[in-house]
Structure formats: structure tokens, C-alpha cells
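Running low. Got one?
___
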Amino acid sequence: MNELSPDLFKSYLPKLTVSRETIEKYEIYFSLLKQWNKTISLVQERTLDDFFIRHIIDSLQIANLLPAANLKIVDIGTGAGFPGMALAMCGYNNISLVESNRKKCIFLNEVCLKAKTSVEIFNERAENINGKYDFILSRACSSLTNLLSLMNNVSRETSTGIFHKGSTFLIEIEEARLKWDFDYELKNSITDKSSKIIIVKNVGRKYG
């Protein structure tokens, strides 16, 4: 596994400053995840060998797309806390995590306690969340069509959706176009050549 160090972050994310204190939080996070993953399926076991790149750096690559640390952000279907928890540890201070699985929420609360990280955790289905957010995040949670429906429920007029997507991203965009009008931009993932970050704005439901 890659050793977590400032140099590792600089090699992938040269514009992002990550302190030694933050790195210590990520190390606690990893330790807890390894323990809990033995009894709860939080991440695929094989990804633990490359945890810091596959999960932490993969999450933090969207930091440059978030213009201010105090904007209201929600991570839909956060699972083990990616990308929301990783961003919160890096200084984003108004993040909500939404997860319907109670055991995963217990894990997330344990991470907050042990790594001294503040996030709001909702043990709810995403469609039951009724707050309004500036940014809606999701990483491998659901189809783009479903994410746009959820985004439509919790976004402000100026909100932006930022979604990690795998190699089927073009198919997902085409399918989402059947039900939704939206503008989007694609960014290459720095951790997986076949993946993209989809930035979505101006979402509206199609009628007729």
C-alpha cells in the first residue's frame, strides 16, 4: 500500500495543501475501516491495498471544484464516507452525509469521534432529505438518472452536482437525457483512466 505522506498528495493533487494533522485523521480512518470492513461491507476488500489513492485521493480530486470550504454540501449514499468524510477531514466544514444503512451510519459516527471530524449524518433514504444544498456529491451510489432526481429535491437554483462515474458514463448521460434537461461538463479522473467526474447544473424535469 502507498505510504500516506505530503509527497503522495502533492504528486496527485499539487494545488491542495494537506497538513500532517489531516494525514493523521486519514490514518485513523483507514484503521477503523479495516476493522469494520471485516463485519460490514463498507468497501471492496481488494481496494484496501491501495486505500489512500482509491478512496482518499479519489475523493479529494473534486476539491478544486468546490470554491469555498463553508458552502453547504451533501454526499448522497455516502456508504463508508466517500467523498464527504474525506473532504470534511480536509477542512470542508458544512458537509452532510446521507446513508440509509444504520450500521454504516454507526461506523461514520465512530470515525467522526475517533478522528475528531465534524459532519452531519442522516440515517435516511436520500429521497427523504429536504434541505437545500449548494453542492450535491455522490461516488458510485446510483445511476445518473436517479441522482438527478435526488438532486432536484435538495438543490438550490444555483446548485451543482458533482458525481464520480465509471466507464459507462456516456450511457448514463444518454439515459438521463430521456427524463431530464441538464448542462454538464466532464473531467478526467486522476485515479482511473476509464472514469470521469460529471459536473451537472441547471437540472429540470422533462414533461410530455
